[in-house]
Amino acid sequence: MIDSQEPHGFVINGGGNQSSYRRAAACAMQAKLSNPDVSVAIFVTNIKTFPSKYEECADYLIEFPYGNTAGESVHWNLNDWQLFHATPFEKNIVLRSDVLLLENLQWCWDALRTYSVCFPQQIKTFRAMPYLPDSRKVWFENNLANLNDGMWYFDNSDNSHAYFKMFDVVCHHWREMYKNILKPEHIPTWPQTDLLHSITNSLLDSYTDNLHTNLEVLSYTEMHNFKNELWTDVLNVWYTGQLKIDNFLQSRSFAYINDDFLDEELFNGIRDRYRNSQRKEAA
Amino acid sequence: MNKLAQTGVCFFAYNNDQLDYINFSVLAAEQVKKHFTKHNNTCLITDEAGEGYLRSVYSAAEIDEIFDYIVTTDTPGNQNYRAHYDSPWTEFSAPFKNGNKHEVFWLTPFERTILMDIDYIVQTNALETVFDKDNVNPVQMFKDARYLRYEYPRFKERWLHENGIPMLWSTVVYFDQSDESRLFFDTWAHIADNYDYYKFLYGFESKLFRTDFCVSIASHILDGMQIGDFVTNLPGNQMLNVDQKDDIVESNSADHFVFLAHDRDEPWKNILVKIEKQDIHIMNKRALGRMMDQWEQT
C-alpha cells in the first residue's frame, strides 16, 4: 500500500481497453459531480493506453502495480485485489465502472466508519423496489450469502489487508474456487466479481463483519435485462442532469450494466456538466 | 372561498341510459348517514337532469334527509364509453361521465372532504377517522385493493404498464383545502386536460379516460417522479373490491351481502362470500341495482 494521502476517496477499476476507459471516465466525472469534495482514483492495466482526453476526469490515474491478473481477457475485475495495495486513500468506496453516482455519499462515510470492508446487501430496481437477482438462488444453494459489488468499501486496516490477501487468492484461482465451492451445474464460465467476493467472505467466515446491517448503506439501483430483451431496448432514458428511466427519477447510485446505455449524448452530457462544474470552481 | 361546513362526503352522479347513478348515490349517502357517527354531512354533485330526476323520485323531505347539499354542474363533456359486466356472461357499454371529478376540490362545500364513488358502500365508520383533528395528511387514497377471493387486482390495476408507475384508486379520496391539496388537484386537472399526452408519456394503452390513472400520475409527479407518500393511504390500507363479474346472490340490506365470487381463469367456478361490517366497492352496478329493487319490494 502506498503512503495514504487523503482520508477518503472513490476508486474505479478502469480496465484496459477503450470501452472500459470510457466507462470509468463517465463514472469518475459523475462521482465528482455529485460528490465534489471527494477525490477519485482510476486504476488501469496500462497507463500509456489511457486516453489523454479522459485524464481530466480523475484526481489519480494509477496503473495496477502487480500486472494484469485478467491476462488476455476483459475480466478487469480480477485486478480488484490490487486496489488495497495501490490506493491513495485511507478509506475507499469502490465504484464499479458501470455505476453512475447520482447522490452525495457523505452520510455513507459516516455509516461505514466501524467497518474495515463492507458490501451492500440490497440493490433496487429503477422503481426503487428491493430486488434479489435470480442468481442468488444458486448462491444460497451453495451456502453463499447475498452481497453486491456495484459499490463496496474498504479501509487501510489490518482486517482489510487480510481480506485482500484472501481475495488475491480467489481472483488468481477463481476456476478452482468455483469447482471447490459450487455444485457442478452452478459453475459460471466467467469470473463474477460479486460471486468472488461472496466466496472470499465465505472462506474468511466474515459475512457478519462485512455486510452492513443498514440495508440502505451502499445500496444502489442495478438494472437488469429482461428475458429476451436488453433493458436499454425497452425502457426510455432521459438525461438532463437528472437521470430518468421510464418516468422514474433516479436519485440513488445507478448501475446500468449495458454499454449501449452510455451513448454519445449521455456521455457528453455528463462531461459537459462536469466541465462546467470545474469552471465554476476555478472562477 | 369559505366552505359551508367543516367535514363531509361528496358523491358525483350523472345518469346515463344504462345505469341509475342518482339512485346509487342515494344508497351510498344513506350508508354514510347510518354509519358515520359524527362527520356525516353529504353532498351530491350532479347536473340539472340528475337533480331533476332526483326530485322526481324522492320527496323534498327524503332528499333533505339524505343530502345536506346539492351542487349542480354542467354535464361532463367526455362521453367515455366503457364496457361493463354483469357477471361473466353479460356485457354492455355505457358512457362513463368522469371528466370533471377533479373539480371536487372547488365544488365541495366542505373544508375537509371525502370524495366517494357511488358504488362504494360503507358498512363501518372506518373512513371517518380521516376527519380526526390530528390528521395532517392533505390527500389520501387507497393504494392497494383486494377482491372477494382475496386476490390481488390484475396487473393493469396495480401498474399503469409493465414498467410503469403504481396505480392509485380514485374510488375514495380524502382531501382538505390546504395548498398541498390544491396543488394535487391542479395537477390532476392539468393531466385530465392533457390526457393524451400523459397517456403516451406514461406508456399506458387505454382509450378510456380513467381518473385512477390521472391521480396516479399526479401523485407520481408530486413525489418527484419517484414512488413516495405525497398521497398517503386511507385507513384500512386496502380497498375490498367486488368485481363486475361477481354477482350478488342474497342481500336483505346494504349491510349484508352474499356474493358469488367468480374465478378469473375459470369464470364458471364460483365461491360464496358473505360480507358484513366491511366497506366494499361493488363494481357490478347492475347487480347492486337488482338488490336495491328487491329491498324496495320487501
Care to describe what's here?
Helix content of chain A is 34%, strand content 18%. By secondary structure, chain A is α/β, with parallel strands linked by helices. Chain A has a six-stranded mixed beta sheet. In chain A, strands 5-14-10-7-8 form a five-stranded mixed beta sheet. The model of chain A has no long low-confidence stretch (mean pLDDT 94). With 298 residues, chain B is an alpha/beta fold. Helix content of chain B is 28%, strand content 28%. In chain B, the strands form four sheets. Chain B has a seven-stranded mixed beta sheet, sandwiched between helices. A four-stranded mixed beta sheet of chain B has the order 7-16-12-9. Chain B is globular.
Keywords for this structure?
heterodimer, A: 283 residues, alpha/beta, 6-stranded mixed sheet, 5-stranded mixed sheet, 10 helices, 14 strands, globular, B: 298 residues, 7-stranded mixed sheet, 4-stranded mixed sheet, 16 strands
Entry summary:
The complex is a heterodimer of chains A (283) and B (298). With 283 residues, chain A is of the alpha/beta class.
List the helices and strands and how they pair.
The complex is a heterodimer of chains A (283) and B (298).
Chain A: E1 6-13, H1 18-34, E2 39-44, E3 60-63, H2 83-86, E4 89-95, E5 99-100, H3 106-111, E6 117-118, E7 123-124, E8 130-131, H4 135-141, E9 151-155, H5 158-172, H6 174-181, H7 193-204, H8 207-210, E10 220-222, H9 231-234, E11 237-239, E12 243-245, E13 248-250, E14 254-255, H10 264-282
Parallel strand pairs in A: 1-2, 1-4, 2-3, 7-10, 10-14
Antiparallel strand pairs in A: 4-9, 5-14, 6-9, 7-8, 11-12, 12-13
Helix pairs in contact in A: 1-10, 5-7
Chain B: E1 5-12, H1 21-35, E2 42-47, H2 48-57, H3 60-66, E3 69-73, E4 81-85, E5 91-95, H4 104-107, E6 110-116, E7 120-121, E8 139-142, E9 144-147, E10 169-175, H5 179-193, H6 195-201, H7 211-222, E11 232-233, E12 238-242, E13 247-253, E14 256-262, E15 270-276, E16 280-282, H8 285-297
Helix pairs in contact in B: 5-7
